[in-house]
Amino acid sequence: MTRDSSKDWQVFISCKVSDGKGGYTRDWHLAKELYELLEANSIKVFMSSISLGQLGESDYKQVIEEALEQAQVMVVVGTSKENINSEYVKYEWNSFHNEIISGIKKGGRVFAFVETLRIHELPRPLRNNQSFYVSERSSLVSFVISALGLDSTNLTPKSESEQKKIATSTGHDSISLQQKTESELAIKSITSRNGDELIYVEGGVFIMGDTWGDGFDKEKPPHEVELTYDFYIGKCPVTFDEYDRFCREIETEEPSDSGLGRGRKPVMWVSWFDAIEYCNWLSEKEGLPISYSGDGSLLDRNKQETEDITKVKGYRLLTEAEWEYSARGGKKSMGYKYAGSNSPDLVAWYDSNSGRMIHEVGQKKCNELGLYDMSGNVWEWCCDCYDSEYYSRSPSINPYNSTDGSSRVKRGGSWLDYALCVRVAFRLDDTPDYKYFDFGFRIARTVF
After folding, report:
1. HSE (side-chain half, CA atoms, 13 Å) at 371
2. Residue 113: phi, psi to the nearest 5?
């Protein structure tokens, strides 16, 4: 069956085709299996060695460029560094990646599909959550479906005979064409001595900032960030239950709840300095070195001032980059605008659904990492000093803005705010001694 060359392609599969001996590479065979799986889910897939023959086009360069422009998802298939970096393959994934970075291809996604290649061996733009091993083929299909904004339950599958043919060609007894729209969460966690539950997050590479092109100047430019270390992050914001125990132990006044209730609701009326004092208390409670000096400077395990977050061993606030990476879902990111969904009502308490009050943590849908309330409920203090133009000069590896400033970053929005404020890219600030009835925080720890 010949396709209409003007038809919009949804997915572009890139791989090295020839093995140089007149045959196909292992990459091509893996790519073909994936092609057939995606086609079975009624997804329009461009794979040059197959699609060009179907189209019967002679100007193959123009057709490839059009397919690169039309596709919203690229899958790069590779069994070696050499193949992934071969001339045409690199051109394809690099062109696609640059269009995402520049904002031309809004919402575009790149996935890597590898066999024995280690993730850290991938080129930097591919070395992040968009990496799947061959054994994770069905999960990759699920992510592609979600990235395209499709409902897997409404996809039109091929006939039963076609499904059997595909299952046989891919070496599986059966593969469900009713793909899941979310990955299954494999969550590792720890619990502090005060009852704070923290989830393990693997470091990775992501695009930070306004990746949708509809944000504010302070969210621009979108830029690539790599976190080279793993860390723990609070599953939820710190609650009144947890913070009140701290207050009773150090014999200080508990913050007001403004008549909205305590217990499992996120603590509010806390300043940035209150938040880091809680972190230091929790570190000492567990025999860890404290993370902050009296003026708020970061301390390493030897209690020496540092700007390197990887050397900070105790409990602390998240860096702004850690916060956004986690809110976006880390290595499991599905590319959502809010933390876990493109619909704020599913994941966030904000002005349109909060009833003008805070709510108990964990009542909305979690994000891809199993984190709750990253969007909405209360603002969350971050470790960094705030600079509206920081993104134009921030380092690409483990960024942390320690430059002295009069304000600190806060993220996530609150029950008082419009939906635009609970986006994962939105940033705001306040002075570190300021308190308000929608200011809270979430804790973190570097993994050693």
Report:
1. 34
2. -125, 110
The label of the residue with tokens 């590319």 reads: 335
Sign of CA dihedral 388, 389, 393, 397: positive
Query: How many CA atoms lie within 13 Å of 166's alpha carbon, on the beta-carbon side?
Result: 22
Contact 440, 360 (CB under 8 A): no
Query: Could you report the per-residue pLDDT of 41-62, keeping only the tens digit for each?
Result: 889 999 998 988 777 655 788 8
CA angle (317 as vertex; 429, 256 as ends), nearest 5: 70
Q: Find tokens 């197959």 and name the residue.
A: 50
Of 104-113, 190-199, 419-428, the range with the lowest mean pLDDT is: 104-113
3-state secondary structure of 310: helix
* pTM for the model: 0.67
What pLDDT score was predicted for residue 73?
A: 95
Which domains, from first to last, does the chain contain?
Answer: 11-169 (3.40.50), 189-446 (3.90.1580.10)
CA 255 from chain center: how many Å? 33
**Residue 46 near residue 15, CB atoms below 8 Å:** no
* Number of residues that make up the chain: 448
pLDDT at 156 over 70: no
How many C-beta neighbours within 10 Å does residue 153 have?
8
CA–CA distances in Å: residue 316 to residues 136, 202, 266: 35, 17, 17
Res. 3: pLDDT tops 60: no
Beta strands in 318-426 (DSSP E): 379-385, 408-411
Residue 386 and residue 405 in contact, taking contact as beta carbons nearer than 8 Å: yes
CA separation, residue 306 to residues 225, 291, 364 (Å):
20, 10, 37
Cα gap 412→340, rounded to integer Å: 12
- Per-residue DSSP letters for 252-290? -PPPP-TTS--TTSBP-S--HHHHHHHHHHHHHHTTPPP
CB contact at 8 A, 148 and 154: no
